[in-house]
Each structure stands twice: as C-alpha cells, then as structure tokens.
Design a protein that fits this description.
Layout: H1 3-19, E1 22-26, H2 51-54, H3 57-62, H4 64-74, H5 83-93, E2 97-102, H6 108-112, E3 117-119, E4 122-129, E5 135-137, H7 138-147, E6 161-165, H8 174-186, E7 189-193, H9 204-211, E8 215-220, E9 232-235, H10 238-253
Bound molecules: nicotinamide-adenine-dinucleotide (NAD) and zinc ion (ZN).
C-alpha cells in the first residue's frame, strides 16, 4: 500500500478509536464485492439501464412487468456478506460504532451480524401488494415471477406487487430517516463506505453529521462530492480497506479487546 494511503488508514483508525461515537453510512459499493452491482460510477448498472424505467414509482405503476423482468434477470438472492460487512460488525463489537445507516436494500449488514441497521431505502427481502397491502417474503414472489411475469398478488389477485424498497419518486420511511438524523447529530465520526453521495435525502445524513461537528472518513472506489469536507479519504475497495482499519485498531488494542478498554 502507498504511504499516503497508509497514513490515511492510520488516521481513520485513530479517529474511530478516539471518538467512540461512530456511525457507519453505507451505499451500494459495500456490497459490490458480494457480487451485487452498484448504480453510479464505473461499471454501475445505470450505465446500462435507465433508472427511470426500472426503478421509478410512476413507471412501476404504469408497467410493473418492466421491473419484474429486470428482477428476473438481475436479482442476486444468494449473495453473502464480504469482509467489509464483517469489519463493520467488528467495529460495532468493539464499541466504536453505534449503528449502520445504509442505503442498501440487500440485508447483508444484518446477515453479517450488525446489530443496529437503519435501512433508509427499505428492504428487497419482502414484497407488498399496492392494492390490499398484504406483505409476502420475496422468495415466494420470485417463485411466482419465474412462473408468470409479472406476478399477481396471492391474496387479492392485484397486479401491483412492489418490493418494499424505496423507488425513485417515493418518500423515505420517516422513522428510519429520523433515527438516522439523530444518530448523525450525535456522532463524533462518520465512516462512509461505498456511496457516490449523490442520492438525497440519504446523502444529507453525513452532511448533517459534519454540520454538527463530526469528522468524516470516506472509503470509496471513486472520488465523491464530499471528499473536500472529509478528514480522511481512502480510494480503494471496501473489502480490502475496512479490514485494514480493523487490523490497525487490533494492533493498538489487542485482538480480543472490547470497546471498554
Ligand atoms: P451508488 O451506486 O450511487 O454509488 C456506489 C459507489 O460505490 C460508487 O461511487 C462506486 O465508485 C463505489 N464502489 C464500487 N465498488 C466499490 C468497492 N468495492 N468498494 C468501495 N466503493 C465501491 O450507490 P449509493 O451511493 O448507495 O446510492 C444509490 C442507490 O442505490 C441507493 O438508493 C441504494 O438504495 C441503491 N442500491 C442498493 C444496492 C444494494 O442494496 N446492494 C445496490 C445498488 C443500488
Ligand atoms: Zn393484494
């Protein structure tokens, strides 16, 4: 690793150790090494698909088949957490992170073992009928989708089955947004991982934390519009950089120490 990057790693570790009121804010980039593609930037899905066709609430309401055909070909239901997700679990276990606020809908933070996860954009693991509001596990509807695309509601026969994710044009869940905002205002440091920081209101969370005095650490493959306001910026793969930060902390405090050292 280059010296500059090494210095940044040391700074990131020391900010997390010192502050002890840490918050992680994650985006699609944290799951790329689990095989789930991100949206914006090099190789992102939106360089191949029009988001307004497959992920906007208005087009979804007009033609749910478009979404379900896309889902048939692109959804990864067998993805596993990667070393970046596990590093965040370790930081929480050490008492250095209070929560993970995520824009992701893939459930991989929970699968890795993170205790407090705030999903700002909902979850892709369930589906809701827009007619009768019944909810179903995603696997069940994926099965129906493979038999007949688009699937209809098993309860009422309705045509509008929507994954419980926030599509473009929809509001964020209020309770989750409020929790994320209070965590941001109380945070001493925010560790941003794998987000282009271009999607609002979600990107307002690290910004709010900064306005309330938090230091920002950014780990991302590409530059972001927040790089200039960050105390530490590391351009690299989340699955490589986060374990390095944890190793640094382990070197300072010992492999099995908890946050109360
Ligand atoms: P984004 O696609 O806008 O940005 C992802 C960023 O991650 C990019 O800047 C990219 O350079 C970076 N990146 C790619 N691979 C990386 C890696 N291995 N390590 C570190 N960084 C890497 O994603 P966003 O900021 O989360 O916002 C977009 C929206 O995408 C959100 O609304 C989210 O709900 C949705 N989304 C979620 C998933 C998921 O659940 N896994 C996947 C795609 C998109
Ligand atoms: Zn229904």
């Amino acid at each position: 690793m280059r010296t500059a990057a090494k210095d940044q790693l040391l700074m990131a570790a020391s900010l997390l150790e010192r502050t002890r009121v840490g918050l992680a804010f994650t985006g699609a980039g944290v799951s790329v090494e689990s095989g789930i593609p991100h949206f914006r930037g090099n190789g992102g899905l939106w360089t191949k698909f029009d988001p307004y066709k497959v992920a906007h609430i208005e087009t979804f309401r007009k033609n749910p088949a478009e979404y379900w055909t896309y889902s048939l070909n692109h959804r990864r239901s067998d993805a596993e957490p990667n070393p970046a997700h596990r590093a965040l679990v370790e930081l929480e276990r050490r008492g250095l992170l209070r929560a993970v606020v995520t824009q992701n809908t893939d459930g991989l933070h929970q699968k890795a073992g993170s205790g407090r996860v705030i999903e700002l954009h909902g979850s892709s693991h369930s589906v809701v009928c827009l007619d009768c509001e019944a909810k179903f596990p995603r696997d069940e509807i994926d099965r129906l989708n493979r038999q007949h695309c688009p699937p209809s509601c098993p309860a009422c026969g309705g045509r509008f089955l929507k994954p419980t994710v926030v599509l473009f044009g929809e509001a964020l869940p209020e309770a989750q947004l409020r929790s994320a905002q209070s965590l941001a205002m109380a945070a001493g440091v925010v560790l941003v991982v794998g987000s282009s920081l271009q999607v609002y209101p979600a990107a307002g969370i690290p910004r709010l934390a900064r306005e309330h005095g938090a230091d920002i650490i950014i780990v991302n493959a590409e530059p972001t519009p927040f790089d200039e306001m960050a105390a530490v910026v590391i351009h690299g793969k989340a699955g490589e950089v986060l374990p390095e930060i944890v190793s640094r902390i382990e070197a300072d405090y010992g492999a099995s120490a908890t946050g109360n050292v």
